[in-house]
Design brief:
This protein is of the alpha/beta class and 351 residues long. It has a domain of 166 residues: Rossmann fold (3-Layer(aba) Sandwich), CATH 3.40.50. The chain is 42% helix and 19% strand. It is built from 15 helices and 16 strands. Strands 3-2-1-4-5-6-10-15-14 form a nine-stranded mixed beta sheet, with helices on both faces. Helix 7 links the parallel strand 5 and strand 6. The structure holds galactose-uridine-5'-diphosphate (GDU). The site of galactose-uridine-5'-diphosphate has 18 residues, from helix 8 and strand 8. It comes from Arthrobacter bambusae.
Length: 351
Amino acid sequence: MANSRYSGKQIVITGGTGSFGHTVAKKLLETDVEQIRILSRDEAKQDAMRHELPDPRLKFYVGDVRDFDSVARAMKNADYVFHAAALKQVPSCEFFPIEAVRTNILGSENVVRAAEKNSVSSVVCLSTDKAVYPVNAMGMSKAMMEKVAQSYGLNNPNAETVVSCVRYGNVMYSRGSVIPLFINQIKAGKQLTVTNPDMTRFLMSLADSVNLVEFAFENARQGDLFVKKAQASTIADLAQAVANLFESESEIRVIGTRHAEKLSEALATREELTRAEDMGDYFKVPADNRDLNYSLFFESGDVNQANYSDYDSHTVERMNVREIENLLLTLPEVRRELAAAGKMDRIGAQL
Ligand SMILES: O=c1ccn([C@@H]2O[C@H](COP(=O)(O)OP(=O)(O)O[C@H]3O[C@H](CO)[C@H](O)[C@H](O)[C@H]3O)[C@@H](O)[C@H]2O)c(=O)[nH]1
């Protein structure tokens, strides 16, 4: 990260003890940032992070985005906010959707309001492809978070706080996700459980997701939403790639689609793409800035829509098994697992 942007700045990361917060904090500590504040609920995780990153510029705030006062306290005199706190497990949000409303929607509103109150200059909110045409409560609540973020600019055209969003695909090797699951199944000599071999997902590394937030932070204007162009793969190919790397003979067992999951995910809708700016590796989707004169919503349409299709994991360029293997080899966690399994030649091929 360029030093100048963060020089002398105070930055709040909500949900800062998660994998994203952790990675960003580490990267920021390499700059001349003045202070990084981690706002999160779990003091044990904070303690672990404090020991891992012993730096006086890193401060820990116990709090919850559901509680406005705790958010406002962490934001006092802050300059920038990365809003990563969320309930993001699909199944738990299905069982407790109101909890997703409280954290992902109302909590995000608290973050925006507290940022405004403290004259924070930029807030970047983290969203997911599951917010696009959502079918599960987690995705629906994230879609509403995006609306909360974008409506801030619509209602406050002269605001000094710029609020933007980014949308991720699946972050590879994130906690509880399918890649570490496949690796554990291989290590245990079990079959690889594939839900639906034809299901597709966008695959991103944690480093990609941090770069996306940084890009948004550097380029955002009020209400913008950023998407990183990503490659996709089928789950069958992903399972095969993991098996190949570990030279595993584990068979693939098809277990069927789980509750509330989709065959493919979309990172942007065709309606969004009609007004998006192509920025090379990224799309920037500006907010729909028509004002609250409803006739404009009803009477002025968009003639371009028919020329675009959704940016969907089923239709974008798909990696083949070999390409997925190479992508997996860029992940430090996979390299560690391969080293532990004595597959040094695999790692060496990529050095
Ligand atoms: O045993 C399994 C488990 C999963 N899958 C498949 O692997 C893909 C990825 O599954 P993950 O569980 O890794 O990820 P999800 O797409 O379900 O969602 C994940 O990524 C989201 C972000 O988009 C959220 O963070 C969410 O909480 C997190 O589980 C899916 O197609 C899923 O069907 C299998 O084939 N076998």
